[in-house]
C-alpha cells in the first residue's frame, strides 16, 4: 500500500488522467443512449470529452480548466444538452481551485459558479414530475453539494498554508538557535582567550624576567640565582594550575567538575600579585583608599586582571628602570582603579585601533572585561612620560 501511495503522490496528473478516462467512459454511454439527433449527439460528445480533459488537467492548470468548465456549462445551457455524468467534472474543478494556492478570483468564481449551477439547471431543465417543492429541495441539495466541495477545498488550502507557516517558523527558529549558539560559542572563546592571555602573559613575563636575572647573576651571586629559580618554579606552578582549570572548563563545561579547582582571583589577591611583581624586580607602590568590602565576583575578577595586565605591560614596555603605582579606591557605588608607570610607555599602535600586527590583545581584553561589568576604561600615555590605565567598575551593571 505504501508503494501505491508513493506512486500516486509522484504522478498526480497520471492519476487524474485515469479518473478522466473512467468519467469519459460513463459519459460516452450516456451520449449513446440519449435520444437526440446526430448534431446534438456530436456536440454532447465534444462537451463530454472536454469535461473529461478538465479532470485530467485540473492540477496542472486549475484556473484555465475552471474557465473551460464555466464555458462548457454555458454551452450546455445554450445547446440544450442536459445534465450528464461528465458534469461531475465541474464539482471536481471547484474543489481543486478552492484548494489551490492561486488567484483568489478563481476561487470566488468557482464558489459563485457552484452556487448558481443547480439553479440554472433547474430553470433550463425543470423536473416537472417532482413539483415545485421537490425542485426547490433538489436545487438546495445540489447547491449545498457544490458549496461543500468548495469549502472542503478551501479548508485544505488553509490547512496546507498553516503547516507551511509552521515549517517556515520552525526553520527560522532553528536558524536563530544556530545563530545564538554561534554567538555563545564565540563569546565563550573570547572569554577563554582573555583568561589564557592574562594567565600566560603575566606568568611567562615573570618567568622570563627571573630567568634573565638569574642567568646574569649566576656566577656572581648564586643565592640570587637560586631565588630567581624558585620564583620561576612557583610562577610556573601557578600558571599550570590556572591553565589546568581553564582546560577543565573546556572539557566539562563547569569549573567545579575539572580535576583541580582553582578559585577565581579577587581584589584581595591584588596585594599578592603586587608582591610577586616586586620580587620579579619591578618597583610598585600599592595603596588602597576607602573601606574595603566584598564586591561582585565579576568586578573582583575584572579588577585583578586589569592590574595584572597593566603590570605585565610595564615590565614589557616600561624599560629596566621603570616603576609603577597601583591605586584601588572604594566608592559607594563602585571600585576605581589607577595603574601608572614612569617608563617609556607602550607604542602608540598598541593602545589605538585595537593593536597592530597581532599585538595589543591585553588592552582589548581589558576593554571587553570592563564592558561586561558596565564600567569605563581610559588608557594612554601619562603626562610627563609613562603609561596610565584608569578604570571605574560599578557595583551594578548598566541597564
Identify the CATH architecture of the domain at 266-399. 2-Layer Sandwich
The averaged pLDDT comes out at: 82
Q: Biggest β-sheet, characterized?
A: 5 strands, mixed
- Low-confidence parts: 254-262, 349-359
- Elements, N to C (H/E): HHHHHHHHHEHEEHEE
Report the C-alpha radius of gyration, rounded. Answer: 44 Å
Predict the CATH topology of the domain at 266-399.
Answer: Heat Shock Protein 90
- Give the helix proportion (percent range): 55-70%
Beta strands, count = 5
Strand content: 5-15%
Say which CATH homologous superfamily of the domain at 266-399 is assigned: Histidine kinase-like ATPase, C-terminal domain
Morphology: rod-shaped
Strand arrangement across the biggest beta sheet: 1-2-3-5-4
Distance linking N and C termini: 62 Å
Helical stretch count? Answer: 11
- What is the CATH top level name of the domain at 266-399? Alpha Beta
Structural class: alpha+beta
